[in-house]
Design goal:
Strand order of the largest sheet: 1-3-2
Number of domains: 1
Largest sheet: 3 strands, mixed
Mean pLDDT: 90
Structural class: mainly alpha
Number of strands: 3
Shape: globular
Distance between the termini: 22 Å
């Protein structure tokens, strides 16, 4: 887990989810909010702003600096943005997928701890073990 994520990044994520309602708006409005969020996070790190488009699968295209998402997803947008950061030389783990998963999940956990815990408890965070409360209940 990343414990040293910029406080500015965490505040930006919190603003788009809690104040601007990322999870409560239409898909079209959600993509607008994700684009704005990515733009602000890019400024924090001094990076060019990658393009974000609706796509049939999640991806980051290095040569185009383009993120594609099939739906509005905070963690997926952060994951693909981390690939953009990797292109710009920011990488902690050798495996780029491990690095992107760790960074995106860490941002979610640090910015929105109660929402993160709720998502983890419901089994929505795929790359973590089963939440301790669910181990004996057979919840997967």
């Amino acid at each position: 887990m990343f414990t040293d994520i910029s406080n500015r990044t965490l505040k930006i994520v919190k603003k788009y989810v809690k104040k601007k309602g990322l999870w409560r708006v239409t898909e079209e409005e959600g993509f607008v909010l994700l684009r704005e969020m990515i733009k602000e996070i890019s400024v924090v790190y001094g990076f060019s702003v990658p393009r974000l488009d609706l796509s049939n699968h999640e991806h980051y295209i290095n040569s185009l600096e383009q993120i594609g998402l099939p739906k509005v997803s905070l963690v997926s947008a952060l994951h693909e943005f981390r690939h953009h950061m990797q292109k710009k030389g920011r990488k902690r783990y050798d495996d780029i997928e491990v690095d992107a998963r760790a960074w995106s999940i860490s941002v979610f956990k640090l910015a929105l701890p109660y929402d993160f815990d709720s998502a983890w408890r419901r089994g929505m965070i795929w790359y973590l073990p089963i939440h301790p409360e669910n181990r004996d209940r057979g919840v997967d």
